[in-house]
Automatic annotation (TrEMBL):
A Pfam family it matches: Mito_carr
Keyword Membrane: yes
Protein name: Mitochondrial substrate/solute carrier
Record GO biological process: mitochondrial transport
Solcar repeat feature ranges: 4-116, 125-216, 225-310
GO CC, any one term: mitochondrial inner membrane
Length: 314
């Protein structure tokens, strides 16, 4: 059962990740929208949460007024016009590797922990233990998959940079080799604390809430166990995961994509982002996050349920 749960989770994750990759790319571009060239230089700022003599609201209004707003649809159209339709799949090789490492680990480990912690008498697992299993599985999976995650973010974001500043990685292997050669091995785990935190939140929210929604639907007789139940429960789980993880995801994306010296860690990135763009900048890309998490989670769990049926006798 242990090995099979990793195989099932890996197959479902790769299919879901690759099929929703364009939505993830648009989400990353939106999260980076608003960063200015000045973020690539080292500057001395006031201590965290210190504002000028004017009110914080006035300061934020002043600094955010010059950032043009852009929506996911218009951004997607602009990417296709300026970079070609193939640009929507920039970094898909890194997504494939990331899902193989990160999601296979978290999905398989979650099932192993869930089976281990289930009450043998009632055959049920309470919500707190489901969340605990998700936190552990997500954290370990993120640590394993962080190099692919860094490569994926950079490859997705490359097209927004001026031609002279683009990294132009040939693929995920080239990206990892270039990072190790130019920035050291530790660059592969840049933003790993954020990645782990985000993965713990996403996995706990996504997997635990899916199980909880599915159980609630079946126990209350709202629907039968089938495709309809899987779609409803998985879409609800995707929305929960989006709300919980978006702020961490924005900071993670910016730290992973930064030039050396742009931010002095995650907290510095968060403070600079809020100062320059307002608190709601932490929810940049929320619409495409939901639009991506919804389909991703639906494809993930619907595929997972079907793969489980196919491998039931193995």
């Amino acid at each position: 059962m242990g090995v099979k749960s990793f195989v099932e989770g890996g197959i479902a994750s790769v299919i879901a990740g690759c099929s929703t990759h364009p939505l993830d790319l648009i989400k990353v571009r939106l999260q980076l929208h608003g960063e200015t060239p000045s973020t690539t230089t080292v500057t001395l700022l006031r201590p965290a949460l210190a504002f000028p003599n004017s009110s914080p609201a006035a300061f934020l209004a002043e600094t955010t007024s010059s950032v043009p707003k852009v929506g996911p649809i218009s951004l997607g159209i602009n990417i296709v016009k300026s970079e070609g339709a193939a640009a929507l799949f920039s970094g898909v090789s890194a997504t494939l590797l990331r899902q193989t490492l990160y999601s296979t680990t978290r999905m398989g480990l979650y099932e192993v922990l869930k089976n281990k912690w289930t009450d043998p008498e009632s055959g049920k697992l309470n919500l707190s233990r489901k969340i605990g299993a998700g936190l552990v599985a997500g954290g370990i999976g993120a640590a394993v998959g962080n190099p692919a995650d860094v490569a994926m973010v950079r490859m997705q974001a490359d097209g927004r940079l001026p031609l002279a500043q683009r990294r132009n990685y040939a693929g995920v292997g080239d990206a990892i080799r270039s990072m190790v050669k130019g920035e050291g091995v530790t660059s592969l785990w840049r933003g790993s604390a954020l990645t782990i935190n985000r993965a713990m939140i996403v996995t706990a929210a996504q997997l635990a809430s899916y199980d909880q929604f599915k159980e609630g639907i079946l126990e209350n007789g709202l629907m039968k166990d089938g495709l309809g139940t899987h779609v409803v429960a998985s879409f609800a789980a995707g929305f929960v995961a989006s709300v919980a993880s978006n702020p961490v995801d924005v900071i993670k994306t910016r730290v992973m994509n930064m030039k050396v010296g742009a931010y002095d860690g995650a907290w510095d990135c968060a403070v600079k982002t809020v100062r320059a763009e307002g608190a709601m900048a932490l929810y940049k890309g929320f619409v495409p996050t939901v639009c991506r998490q919804g389909p991703f989670t639906v494809v993930l769990f619907v595929t997972l349920e079907q793969v489980r049926k196919l491998l039931r006798d193995f």
